[in-house]
Amino acid sequence: MFRLGQNSLNNRAGVDPRLIEISDRAIQISVIDFGIPSSGGMRTVEDQAKLFTEGKSKCDGRVNLSYHQSGRALDVYAYVDGKASWDEGHLTKVAASMLQAASELGYRLEWGGFWTGFIDMPHFQLAE
Q1: Nearest 10 degrees: CA dihedral of 110, 76, 93, 81?
Q2: What CA dihedral angle connects 114, 12, 94 and 117, to 10 degrees?
Q3: Average pLDDT for 61-74
Q4: pTM for the whole thing?
Q5: Spatial CB neighbours of 30, under 8 Å, sequence gap ≥ 6
Q6: For 43, how many CA atoms within 13 A lie in the half-sphere containing its CB?
Q7: Model confidence over 86-112: pLDDT tens digits?
Q8: Counting beta carbons within 10 angstroms of the beta carbon of residue 29, is it exposed (0 to 12), middle (13 to 18) or buried (19 or more)?
Q9: DSSP calls for 20-67
Q10: Is 118 a residue whose pLDDT tops 80?
């Protein structure tokens, strides 16, 4: 069984408690280890704007707000062979555990891997 490391736990600070519950359950049932990157939880306007400028987000943080700015989103990475992985196959396995955990807990969760246009495989957000 895997567990989230201290950095990943710290990177969830300020995130909606439902996402914390989901990620806690997901790491218990996941077939692949995963973590939360430093920009994977709450984001300031400046943090979000930087990701937008770098082409890593469609939300500019000012006019088009990200779910990360309200704590309703969480990004993950797979942890394989001692390092972070954003491989599609790895992230799909993590997504399966996140979606299963959300279902078990009775929460509606959206995965960016299901989006069209801008596919964001590390991204999960609470469905409103």
Answers
A1: 170
A2: 20
A3: 97
A4: 0.95
A5: 2, 93, 94, 97
A6: 27
A7: 999 999 999 999 999 999 999 999 999
A8: middle
A9: HHHHHHHHHH-SS-EE--TTSS---HHHHHHHHHTTS-S--SSSS--G
A10: yes
